[in-house]
């Protein structure tokens, strides 16, 4: 038991060290080294970095919004799927079944073209920017995944835990809030991390509907510069950037996992 | 509660009258009558599947019988129609299960404090103080900050008893609370229950610990096949019963050696 556990943690820590060194050392080294060898390329890159960075800030924004919205909605939908009343359960089940199997790109296209470019609120015309539509598309997808994760986690808690809460006079909702869901958090963290990371990756799809994010910025840059070596190095920068976007999610999850490990 | 001191010893706190219950086609209780008085220790013994747990679950409204009257501490349990009313009853009736069922994500202290503070809305400081007193009572003061996973079965079960008591119940139901324990930790749990009964807590025990039941009970009933076959004092049930089934059952179990309880053992 303990043998396999330590072996497993050793392999994961080893593979994460390899990943970290590729992401934080090899790719930046390649970019810097190449820029120093060919100074004209380096100059182009330095010139375009602020533009790429402004694109990247959009990826961060979309990721945070989509994951926050998707997690909130997903947990609610997951609990609705387990509700004792069919009129609560059924809509949630239909929603999850439809959207869980939808490709991210389809959802982003759909939200982009279904929603208007501006909305009327109290007589004021407010713009409805494309990046918000991308957030909604990704949030719908992640909420369906997270609903399934939540449902599975709740079902994995032994029924004796429910029995204990009942015996102490908890209502169903109180049992969920104080006893069941806290135990679900730890079990759900690893799959949650997968969803959050794929949403971070998925933000690049927003470039296809014209959102000014990193992929879009890199494409703009390489079209403007028209140099093959610049195009390559620009996309290496993109890869390194996506790595730095996903890496903190993995770290955070592992920290939380350790915190909830007690008991 | 409402009873005056002089009638207290004779007040029926639980009364079941002709209770019938079935799960689908299976008849589990076929007319149960019993009366339990305030402050009494009442034991239910009988073979597996005879409906002992189901009787307890009727008393705190975890299941509802098809017919019959159930009165618990002045409440007609069989007439409760809303879940919220059943919840009100369960707050007043403690139950301890065979499998302890502690909350694994909370410390021992938080396991005890959770329900009184969140469910009854009791004051946090006062409840923590009460919880520490209860832990002392079950001899686990030093484990307040441990997690259930770090405790032995007997220790977990004592925490579960403290958790039930923290709700200040009017009576406590014990459903085979020592059946899942290692033989060497059975004694420490029975010790705690014995203390509790001496303090005057109304207790209903389903148990296979025959000598313990004999020692602490005011009344013992023998169930078989959804019926109460016999009831009386421990002396009557364990020694002078006419019914051959009871003699066989009691003899068979106490011969197994699991019923032995020595004072102070394992503490
Ligand atoms: N929820 C349920 N659904 C269907 N049948 C049930 C349910 N709960 C109990 N039963 C059945 O009712 C009968 C009595 O069960 P009960 O748990 O009350 O017996 P018991 O006397 O406590 O037995 P044991 O000593 O094994 O705990 C058993 O035959 C059991 O299979
Ligand atoms: Mg039972």
SSE arrangement:
The complex is a heterodimer of chains A (263) and B (267).
Chain A lengths: L1 H36 L1 H42 L5 H15 L3 H11 L3 E4 L2 E4 L2 H27 L2 H9 L4 H31 L11 H12 L2 H32 L4
Antiparallel strand pairs in A: 1-2
Chain B lengths: L11 E12 L2 E12 L3 E5 L6 H8 L7 E6 L2 E2 L6 H8 L2 E4 L11 H11 L5 H14 L15 H13 L5 E5 L7 H16 L3 E5 L3 H7 L2 E6 L2 E6 L1 H6 L4 H11 L13
Helix pairs in contact in B: 3-4, 3-5, 4-5, 5-6
Bound molecules: adenosine-5'-triphosphate (ATP) and magnesium ion.
Explained architecture:
The complex is a heterodimer of chains A (263) and B (267). Chain A is 82% helix and 3% strand. Chain A has nine helices and two strands. Chain A has helices at 2-37, 39-80, 86-100, 104-114, 130-156, 159-167, 172-202, 214-225, 228-259, and strands at residues 118-121, 124-127. Chain A has a two-stranded antiparallel sheet with strand order 1-2. In chain A, helix 2 crosses helix 5 (130-156). Mean pLDDT of chain A is 87; it is low at 1-6. Chain B has one domain: P-loop containing nucleotide triphosphate hydrolases (Rossmann fold), CATH 3.40.50. Chain B has a six-stranded mixed β-sheet, sandwiched between helices. Chain B has a four-stranded antiparallel β-sheet with strand order 2-1-4-5, covered by helices on one side. The chains are: A mainly alpha (263), B alpha/beta (267). The A-B interface holds A 160-161, 163-164, 166-171, 174, 178-179, 182-183, 186, 260, 262-263 and B 60, 62, 83-84, 87-88, 90-91, 94-95, 97, 99, 101-107, 114-115, 118-120, 147-149, 163-164, 167. Bound molecules: adenosine-5'-triphosphate (ATP) and magnesium ion. Adenosine-5'-triphosphate binds next to strand 2 and helix 1 of chain B.
